[in-house]
Specification:
The complex is a heterotrimer of chains A (360), B (321) and C (516). Chain A is mainly alpha-helical and 360 residues long. Chain A has helices at 6-32, 36-49, 53-76, 84-102, 108-137, 141-161, 186-192, 205-222, 224-234, 236-241, 246-272, 284-294, 299-322, 329-344, 350-359. Chain A contains 15 helices and no strands. Chain B has helices at residues 2-31, 39-57, 60-84, 89-112, 144-152, 157-175, 177-187, 189-194, 199-225, 237-247, 252-272, 285-289, 291-300; strands at residues 276-277, 281-282. In chain B, helix 2 (39-57) runs parallel beside helix 4 (89-112) and helix 7 crosses helix 9 (199-225). In chain B, a hairpin with a 3-residue loop joins strand 1 (276-277) and strand 2. Classes of the chains: A mainly alpha (360), B mainly alpha (321), C alpha/beta (516). At the A-B interface, helix 6, helix 12 and helix 14 of A face helix 3, helix 4, helix 10, helix 12 and helix 13 of B.
Chain lengths: 360, 321, 516
């Protein structure tokens, strides 16, 4: 197979694939009878210009960093973790259980780190099981993680409508986490030091997300453990030759991936919502696949792709107000197209591009 | 008691119908060596297409045609990515699922402005129940009468087609030349190639048949079982069908059994809701609903019998060694 | 005179820079058994793949039974009456014999029609050629000998007039082989033209009417079998290659560094790949392991390097005793001072998508070359890699270049550098110069010699007989999972070893020599 120079591989090719996804989406908008450029401008304004817009954009970005990074970490070990949705859900359970158990007794500053760890731990455990089943029982990780998404969803409905349901309430959601045990909103923090900011759900979990990116980068590219993880992804026979225990690494890689997905709950349960509501993961786990593919499974790429999707989500919400005929589901369509063009059809243009570049 | 059982069986059958069609679709595609986790997306897209076309034209048949066309074009897209371009089959399936989620709502709002739903369909726009001969006159015969009237009779066309699809798929795969080649291409594509038969075209046909079966399932959801399309109306049925297909080990009759079992769990769960069972007390319906997934995980892990997928499943075919 | 069943003229096929077939000519008379013999990699399989439409030749012409033929895919080949039995069977394992035979020639939309017809044909074929096999048996459950029979039946069912057999006896026991040859003869007697691809001299002599010899992509000789001899064919096969002279360095052979006793190993299908293999290598000695590839060398290397767990037998590495109950993995082996240059550097030895500095620490990624503590230091790795590159003359000497971007020779030097720099007590080397240019070969050979002089025990596995003859102190020859014999370098000549490689044991060699 022909290879492209790095600038084309990392810059031009993703740009072409992204442009193609947007072009198809624009065609759909035009077919509906609206102006694609106008829709784009509404989305850009909604994502960056209006008051609080950037806060909302970054709030969505936070979720996508977590779920995208989770998929990316697994990709580095050539594992396809399609279960981010369920792992994030279980992460929410981990955070919530800690908060509900400890927030009446302990000061928030002590509860928060334990709850964050709880989110990571529950997410890790929920992902490690499919990892173990693949490594030791030969089950296909994709199928198992899909099944685990549904098992997680069912279990959480039962829990939220049962033991976790807020007393005296009939809708399936938990009680609110004590104020002190919640991650503070950025607009509150800014207000405290005298900076006026529009209200938004953006909270400190954004920093946790960025820190996770840095940590993952360090772990994957600056530790021996990361070398082992990347090696099993690059070539399993080479890993075996090098004496790396592949089954153990598969479980560990999945656990790490699940832990990161689980951390998404900090943004929702401990931040924006301050409680657990039904289906709080609302598809972010699946969007993570698009984010990881777009970001070429690298933390920096994930941040950029998450920002793109954050803007799409926030801008997409604006579509609801401005148009009668286009809604935020347009974003779902774009997301599907991005997965198609930068995932399944990623290499469609490689022969063509390499011929073009070769001739030039 | 007998009537209760019949009513339960009746709703089992209705709930199992989309599962059977989608599971047969998955079976045909995966027997040809192409992973199909896009069942859910094709089901959703065709449910929308059926309701939209039926509503616009006033004909259930036009709806069915649109459903088949929508699902088959998504299948063709899957084939284009996975067979022609040798793309990652799972990623392509995920893309199709998300694409369908977005596209159905976007088009639904553009066409009908009802928040993503289609208008309620009238009787002409739906597949109505078919009363089998004698369902009234035989009703009084003890045992058989209620069975004939309550369970066998009174379903819409897609339900009967779903039941017919199982022997049909079985016959096609195990009794025709096409079936032999299709199964061979999912096991040893190079055997098919060296026999002078095109691997690519065979796989495309497998994927397209899967598309048509999903299309029928989608039409059932919105123009027979329901009376119109609502957002996300496939509600994970495509994935349950995938589980049933694995649970039935890629064989039509066991897959039918798995679909009926999973349909029964859903029907029984709905009836059990809120009732106290002896010993275990009240069972949350969610625990019943996740049973298909749990069972599939356990099966895949080889804890009871081994589910062996087609050997070449998920592997794009390259001629060069 | 009748026109030849097959006539090839100037067939050339390149894979990138490698010329697999170089202007090959071939003529096969109808109704004969024609052998094509050559070492592994001589281009035999490529040639028949072109004939069967798996590859398209870059240039050259084909004539089948006197008419020019364009064969673009297998359907074309079948249309020209060519059938092929592949080295790796093209059978659907979970289908029945009947279904496999029918595949692609079912005769109608419904299987039932074709089934009955195929049953009749199978019965006829069984009667005519002695090709009995239960039509309703599931192919995967049959022994390989019968599976092969199914492959032949497939070809005959489609009316093959030319039957190509690619290394057909590799999977057969001697008794099955004899039975197989009878079938070939009866096919010939009924007018079928048989093209037999093999590297085994015994088979050529026993069953063929004519033989063509291939070497390094070229057709070097055509002979009537009755007018040639094993010795002549062996020499034609191996050829008089340019012998690269390596200055032999003397070394005092010391204590036994690596010893294996009674190793036996079966693969997942239960086929015995190694049988009762014992060997011993002393410090300061190179033991060459010669043999046609696929005779157990790879499996032996995997056992010795700890990649595959032992099943039977034991290994002693220095003071350490390794048994099936006291296993030792690759990491443990490295700790005991064993280094391993794997046969397949692309699959195992390197991380092609990674930078050179990362490939340069594979297997030693937990050691000082990567950094300190749990950390990985790219700078330390780059420095380490730059040193290796300098000492082993790897070009371009850029540690940050992607591993796949280096030439074959430079990739191999990188692997060798990585393993040799560990100053191992035992060095296992598989195919050290495969795909390496002449200059690189010389360099690598010198390094191996220096290792020996420095007191390392070296096991050199190679299909290049010259290489083994030039470097080894003792030569062990493997065939069919056994060590057929071990010869001292001073007593070894290329023909004797070639015959041993071809499966003729020491005593037979002597007999053949007496005949001549």
């Amino acid at each position: 197979m022909s290879r492209l120079p790095p600038w084309a591989d990392l810059g031009l090719l993703p740009a072409i694939n992204l442009a193609l996804a947007f072009a198809v989406a624009a065609t759909v908008v035009a077919l509906i009878g609206e102006d694609p450029l106008e829709a784009l401008s509404v989305m850009i304004q909604g994502a960056f210009v209006y008051e609080g817009a950037i806060g909302y954009t970054l709030y969505y970005t936070t979720n996508f960093i977590f779920t995208g990074l989770a998929v990316a970490v697994a990709f580095q070990a050539k594992l396809f973790n399609i279960g981010g949705e369920g792992q994030a859900y279980l992460g929410g359970l981990g955070a919530l259980v800690v908060c509900l158990a400890l927030d009446p007794w302990l000061p928030g500053l002590l509860v928060i780190p334990v709850a964050v760890a709880g989110a990571a731990l529950f997410g890790a455990a929920w992902a490690a099981v499919p990892g173990w089943l693949q490594a030791h029982r030969g089950s296909h990780i994709v199928i198992t993680t899909i099944m685990f998404n549904f098992i997680a969803a069912g279990t959480m409905v039962a829990l939220l409508a049962g033991p976790l349901m807020r007393p005296g309430q009939s809708s399936p959601e938990s009680r609110e986490v004590a104020e002190g045990a919640r991650l503070p909103f950025v607009h509150d923090l800014a207000g405290a030091v005298g900076i006026e900011m529009g209200r938004s759900p953006l909270n400190l979990s954004f920093l946790i997300a960025l820190a996770a990116c840095v940590l993952v980068w360090v772990l994957i590219w600056r530790t021996r453990w990361g070398f082992r993880l990347r090696t099993i992804g690059e070539s399993e026979p080479a890993a075996v030759y090098a004496g790396i225990g592949v089954p153990g690494m598969v479980v560990a890689a999945m656990a790490l991936s699940g832990a990161i997905a689980g951390l998404m709950a900090t943004n929702e349960v401990m931040g924006a919502q301050g409680k657990m509501v039904l289906n709080f993961t609302s598809g972010y786990g699946f969007t993570g696949i698009a984010v990881a593919l777009m970001g070429r499974a690298h933390p920096l790429g994930v941040v950029l792709a998450a920002l793109l999707f954050g803007a799409l989500y926030q801008g997409g919400a604006e579509l609801d107000f401005e148009f009668q005929t286009i809604t935020r589901e347009m974003v779902l369509l774009i997301q599907g197209l991005i997965i198609l063009f930068s995932g399944a059809l990623a290499l469609m243009f490689v022969p063509w591009l390499s011929r073009l570049i070769g001739r030039a | 008691m007998w009537l209760d059982a019949l009513l339960l069986a009746d709703s089992t059958l209705r709930l199992a119908t989309p599962l059977i069609l989608c599971a047969m679709a998955g079976l045909v595609s995966e027997r040809a060596g192409v992973i199909d986790i896009g069942l859910e997306g094709k089901l959703l897209a065709s449910a929308f297409a059926a309701a939209a076309a039926a509503s616009l034209t006033g004909s259930a048949w036009a709806g069915l045609t649109a459903a088949l066309a929508a699902s088959a074009s998504m299948a063709a897209l899957h084939g284009f990515a996975c067979i022609t371009h040798r793309g990652e089959q799972i990623i392509s399936g995920v893309a199709i699922n998300i694409l369908a989620s977005g596209l159905t709502v976007v088009l639904g709002i553009a066409l009908f402005r009802q928040g993503g739903q289609t208008p309620l369909l009238g009787p002409e726009e739906r597949f109505s129940p078919i009363l089998l001969p004698g369902s009234e006159s035989l009703r009084e015969i003890p045992g058989f009468g209620p069975f004939w009237a309550e369970l066998a009779s009174g379903h819409s066309l897609p339900v009967y087609l779903a039941l017919a699809s199982v022997p049909l798929v079985w016959w096609l795969l195990w009794h025709t030349t096409f079936g032999l080649r299709l199964r061979a291409v999912g096991e040893m594509p190079n055997a098919v190639d060296s026999a002078g038969v095109s691997v690519v075209w065979l796989r495309y046909r497998g994927v397209l048949i899967a598309g048509l079966l999903c299309g029928l399932a989608g039409a059932f959801l919105s123009t027979a079982h329901g009376a119109g399309f609502v957002r996300e109306m496939s509600a994970g049925k495509g994935y349950i069908a995938l589980a049933a297909m694995i649970f039935g080990k890629w064989r039509p009759w066991p897959v039918l059994g798995a679909c009926l079992l999973f349909g029964f769990l859903e029907a029984a769960g709905a009836r059990l809701q809120g009732t106290e069972l002896p010993v275990i007390g009240e069972v949350p319906i969610e625990f019943v609903l996740v049973l298909p997934y749990v069972a599939t995980v356990i099966l895949l892990a080889g804890f009871f019998g081994k589910a062996v997928p087609p050997r070449a499943l998920g592997v794009p075919y390259r001629k060069e060694r | 005179m009748t026109s030849p069943a097959i006539r090839l003229r100037g067939i050339t096929k390149r894979f990138g820079p490698v010329v697999a077939n170089d202007a090959v000519d071939l003529e096969v008379a109808p109704g004969t058994i024609h052998g094509i013999i050559g070492e592994n990699g001589a281009g035999k399989s490529t040639l028949v793949s072109i004939l069967y439409g798996f590859y398209e030749a870059d240039s050259g012409t084909m004539e089948i039974a006197g008419t020019p033929a364009q064969i673009r895919d297998s359907a074309d080949a079948i249309g020209h009456g060519i059938g092929m039995v592949h080295q790796h069977f093209m059978l659907v394992p979970n289908a029945t014999v009947l279904e496999n035979v029918m595949l692609g020639a079912e005769g109608g939309f419904l299987l039932s029609e074709g089934r009955a017809a195929t049953r009749t044909i199978l019965a006829e074929l069984a009667r005519d050629y002695g090709l009995e096999v239960d039509p309703d048996a599931v192919v995967g459950s049959l022994p390989v000998g019968l599976q092969q029979r199914v492959e032949i039946l497939k070809a005959l069912r489609r009316g093959a007039e030319v039957l190509i057999l690619d290394e057909p006896t590799g999977v057969l026991t001697p008794a099955e082989t004899d039975r197989f040859f009878e079938i070939l003869r009866s096919l010939r007697d009924r007018g079928v033209t048989v093209l037999l691809i093999t590297h085994k001299l015994r088979e050529i002599m026993e069953v063929t009417d004519a033989v063509s010899v291939m070497r390094q992509g070229r057709m070097v000789a055509h002979r009537k079998t009755s007018e040639t001899s094993r010795e002549e064919l062996a020499e034609l096969m191996v050829g008089r290659k340019v012998v690269l002279s390596v200055e032999r360095l003397a070394a005092e052979a010391g204590e036994t560094a690596l010893a294996a006793q009674g190793l036996a190993w079966r693969d997942a299908q239960g086929v015995a790949r190694l049988t009762d293999v014992s060997l011993e290598i002393r410090a300061g000695e190179i033991l060459g392991l010669a043999g046609v590839s696929g005779n157990g060398q790879s499996e032996l290397l995997d056992l010795l390097s700890g990649i595959t767990p032992l099943q039977t037998g034991e290994i002693r590495l220095g003071e350490r005793q390794i048994t099936p109950r006291a296993p030792c993995g690759p990491a443990g082996m490295r700790d005991l001072g064993l280094a391993h240059v794997p046969e397949d550097r692309h699959l195992r030895g390197l991380l092609l998508g990674f930078e050179a500095r990362e490939s340069a620490v594979l297997g030693y990624h937990d050691g000082p070359a990567t950094g300190t503590g749990r950390w990985l230091s790219p700078r330390t790795m780059a420095r380490h890699c730059a040193q290796l590159m300098q000492r082993f003359d790897v070009r371009p000497d850029n540690p940050r270049l992607r591993t796949a971007g280096f030439s074959g020779g430079n990739q191999q030097k990188l692997v060798l550098a990585r393993e040799i720099e560990q100053a191992p007590k035992v060095l296992l080397i598989g195919q050290p110069t495969r795909g390496v240019d002449i200059g690189g070969i010389e360099f690598i050979h010198r390094r191996i010699m220096e290792m020996k002089a420095a007191g390392t025990a070296v096991l050199l596995v190679s299909v290049e007989l010259d290489e083994i003859m030039g470097l080894a102190d003792r030569i062990a020859v493997m065939n069919a999972g056994r060590i057929v014999g071990t010869v001292d370098r001073t007593e070894a000549d290329i023909q004797t070893i070639g015959l041993m490689m071809a499966g003729v044991t020491g005593t037979e060699t002597a007999a053949a020599g007496a005949d001549a």
